[in-house]
C-alpha cells in the first residue's frame, strides 16, 4: 500500500495524485478507528457500532472515489466481494459457534475486507491469515504461561486490525 500510494502521489497525473491523497485519508481513518476499536475491544470485549458503521461508510465512499479516479471498477468490485466474503465467513462461524466470535468481529471484518480486497486477493488472504496467526500465537502463549485457560475470553478485534494493517503495509 505504501509503495502504491507513493507511485500515485509522484505520478504527475492529477487524478492519480488525488487518488493517492484519498488513500492517505483512508489510511488515517484506518489508524484512528482501528486503534480506537482495538483498545476498546481489548478492554471491554466489544466493538461499538458508533465507530464501525461510520468507518465502513467512509471506507466505502473513499474506495468509490479512488476507483473512479483510477478508472478501476474491478478494484471496487473486488473490495466489495472481499468485504462481503469475510463478513459472511465470520457470520457463519458466529452462527455455528456463538461463543467463538462476536457480532462486532463480523461487522469489523467487512470493513477490513474492503481495505484488503481493494489491493488484491493476495492482500485479502494475507490479512485473514496473519490475523488468525497472531490471535492463535498470542492465545497459545497465554495458555502455555497459564495466564489464560481454555475458557478465557480473548478479544479478536485487535488481531484482525493488526493482521490487516500488516498485510496492507507490506503489500
From TrEMBL:
Highest rank taxon of the organism: Bacteria
Keywords, ordered alphabetically: Membrane, Transmembrane, Transmembrane helix
Prepilin type IV endopeptidase peptidase domain: residues covered: 29-139
Keyword presence, rRNA processing: no
One Pfam family matching this protein: Peptidase_A24
GO cellular component, one term: plasma membrane
Transmembrane segments: 17-40, 52-70, 76-93, 100-118, 124-144, 151-170
GO BP annotations listed: signal peptide processing
GO terms assigned for molecular function: aspartic-type endopeptidase activity
InterPro entries membership: Prepilin_IV_endopep_pep (IPR000045), Prepilin_peptidase/N-MTase (IPR050882)
PANTHER family: PREPILIN LEADER PEPTIDASE_N-METHYLTRANSFERASE-RELATED, TYPE 4 PREPILIN-LIKE PROTEINS LEADER PEPTIDE-PROCESSING ENZYME
Family statement drawn from the similarity comment of this UniProt entry: Belongs to the peptidase A24 family.
Protein's name according to its UniProt entry: Prepilin peptidase
Species of provenance: Nesterenkonia sedimenti
Amino acid at each position: 500500500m505504501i509503495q502504491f500510494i507513493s507511485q500515485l502521489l509522484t505520478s504527475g497525473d492529477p487524478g492519480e495524485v488525488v487518488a493517492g491523497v484519498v488513500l492517505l485519508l483512508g489510511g488515517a481513518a484506518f489508524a484512528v478507528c482501528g486503534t480506537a476499536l482495538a483498545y476498546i475491544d481489548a478492554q471491554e470485549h466489544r466493538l461499538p457500532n458508533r465507530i464501525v458503521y461510520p468507518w465502513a461508510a467512509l471506507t466505502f465512499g473513499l474506495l468509490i472515489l479512488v476507483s473512479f479516479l483510477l478508472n478501476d471498477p474491478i478494484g471496487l468490485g473486488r473490495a466489495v466481494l472481499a468485504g462481503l466474503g469475510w463478513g459472511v465467513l465470520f457470520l457463519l462461524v458466529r452462527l455455528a459457534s456463538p461463543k467463538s466470535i462476536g457480532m462486532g468481529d463480523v461487522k469489523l471484518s467487512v470493513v477490513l475486507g474492503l481495505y484488503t480486497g481493494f489491493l488484491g486477493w493476495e492482500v485479502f488472504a494475507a490479512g485473514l491469515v496473519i490475523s488468525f496467526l497472531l490471535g492463535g500465537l498470542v492465545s497459545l502463549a497465554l495458555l502455555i504461561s497459564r495466564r489464560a485457560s481454555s475458557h478465557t475470553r480473548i478479544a479478536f478485534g485487535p488481531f484482525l486490525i493488526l493482521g490487516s494493517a500488516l498485510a496492507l503495509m507490506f503489500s
